[in-house]
Amino acid sequence: MHFKDIFNVVCSHNLYEYFIINRDFKVTAYSVDAFKYCHCDNSENDIFTLIPELIGMEDELQELFLLDKCKPIKIPHIFKEPDNYVNIIIQSVEKNKCDNKEPNSLIILVQNTTEVILAQQKLMQTANENSLLLKEISDKNAQLYLLNEKMEELVEIEIKKNIEKQKLMEHQSRYSQMGEMVEMIIHQWKQPLNSINVITQSISIAQELGKLDDKYINEKTDAILKQTKYMSQIVDIFQGFFKPNKLKRYFNLYDSIESVLKLLQNEYRLIDINLKLDGNRETIVNGYPSEYIQVVLAIVNYVKDNLILNKHDQMSINIYIYELDGKSIVTIEDNAGGIEKNLLDNIFDISTDVKQENGGIGLSIARDMIVNNMGGKIELENIDGGSKFSIIL
Fold first, then answer.
1. Which domains are seen in the chain, by residue range?
2. Could you tell me how far CA 193 lies from the centroid of its own chain?
């Protein structure tokens, strides 16, 4: 097989295109699809016309022709219209070192990294990336092994990257939950802040009208203190989420869930979802209250997204607490039409491909918080007109 044919095979399997240029920066060879990342498709043009990102780098390119200046030039993450990202790597094509001659050509590799960049931008939409990458790595290994045994090192590198991406997705899900909590705080603060604003304006008006006496000031001061106390209570509720206690303790399930659901009521009311909590108000469990509430929030948010996808006039989420055989059980039921059968068995897996952002990653972390940290489990089943999650502890 000709050298150029071998090089084309290697590059095509690694998403590379290439140009080879001489000392005058003219193209002397190129891969089949090399021009798809260029502004024109005429090989007679110099490399600066084809790849304008190299303009101004003439001196650096000339240095690559020197025997003692062979370190490659790398230009990462270049945007190419309409929707491609590429890395550019420039390396001298060394002659036989025995003849002690400087190289006469440079090779410019253009690596398509669009998928990697888009994956970083849409982490919450890449829950199925793990299995796809493993298959891709396996396929590449089988093909590239015939070319060079050293290519096995690339497989090990890709596996490590994939593990890091999975960890990153888990962290991203946790950050997303924190962001949702901050949004809840902001939403709940708007009303008391508006009230405080109205009160301060009324004080200013009263002063202008000469009606600002001690009684009026005391009334308005009490009203402001009442609003700030409410705002402080909101922060206290969520403080445990940002600084979770690592020690187990006993807590009341109903009170813990109710304190957070109160903050969700207005938001859910605006999107016509009836959120209801009922059941045993005396159930006490031993565990991590902040983590438990995060589990409830993850499930409620998933159910909310499911309802929005299947919107109707009587949307509802009903949470019920009871005890059975020495276990506490919290059920979360909805009337969103149920979950597809092919998702029921693996909806808690981090690789599950689901439409909702909270599915897969969020539910996987929620399950692990219960199973690994508190010795419980989460069950899921379809019921008449919807689905039912059960948190058993």
1. 3-121 (3.30.450.20), 244-392 (3.30.565.10)
2. 32
